[in-house]
Amino acid sequence: MKKATFLAAAFLSAALISGHLYAQDSKTQSDLAANQPRNASATAASGTAIPHDVAVSSLSVRAIKDFKSRFTKVEAESWGRFDKGFFVYFTNEGFKVRAYYDQRGYWLASLKYCGESQLPPFVRDIVKRTYYDFAISQVDIVQVPEHTVYLVHLEDQKSFKTVRVNEEGEMDVLNAYLKAN
Questions:
Q1: Are 108 and 153 in contact (CB under 8 A)?
Q2: Which terminal Cβ of the chain has fewer Cβ within 10 Å, N or C?
Q3: What region, left, alpha or beta, does residue 47 occupy, with left being phi > 0 and alpha being psi -120 to 50 degrees?
Q4: Model confidence over 43-75: pLDDT tens digits?
């Protein structure tokens, strides 16, 4: 199980890095501005500006079918491309979500961002039993085939922590930082 948890964390890191690689390409600011979505809610849904919109005709039919069957009640959907496939930013039932697909249209993973109120009760219970004095500031739900991992961001007056909780209820600390005085 630790191997699966490690793989999920590794995928999350890779996904976040690949999402930021476009910010470093050599296009001029005017080229990037021309490729930004015109729909302000699409930008707000992802939390960041989307680097490149993708024409629907260049998307994998399999990815579109899987997306439509996997996610219902989708708002502010915006597709993009990265070097190994496609991604889509959207909101779904109160969650901000990123879904990733490979070149052939197979689902790779989804990242959901939410607050404490949307955290499954068993995860909240596990975290609060140990970190009862900490406030939960954000939750990242990482879903990969056959596994789900919860990254819970905690904060108190002196520090920040990120803890990882898997489906079996195992918890470990990923990051711990002291606040500057």
A1: no
A2: C
A3: left
A4: 333 333 344 455 555 678 899 899 999 998 899
173 SS3 class:
strand
Dist CA 79 CA 42 (whole Å): 10
Cβ(179)–Cβ(159) below 8 Å: yes
Q: Do the Cβ atoms of 12 and 4 come closer than 8 Å?
A: no
Q: Which pLDDT value is given to residue 178?
A: 93
Buried (b) or exposed (e) across 86-122, using 16+ Cβ within 10 A? bbbbbbbeebbbbbbbeeebebbbbbbbbeeeebeee
What fold is seen in the domain 115-181? Answer: Nuclear Transport Factor 2; Chain: A, (3.10.450)
Distance between CA atoms of residues 132 and 173, nearest Å: 15
Spatial distance between the Cα atoms of 56 and 2, rounded to a whole number of angstroms: 38
Question: In terms of DSSP bridges, do strands 107-114 and 135-144 run parallel, antiparallel, or are they unpaired?
Answer: antiparallel
Residue 97: name the closest of 82, 81, 116, 78 by CA: 78
Show the tokens assigned to 159: 């520090």
pLDDT less than 70: residues of the chain: 1-58
In the chain, the N- to C-terminal Cα span, in Å, equals: 39
Residue type, 18: S
Q: Around Cβ 145, how many Cβ atoms within 10 Å?
A: 8
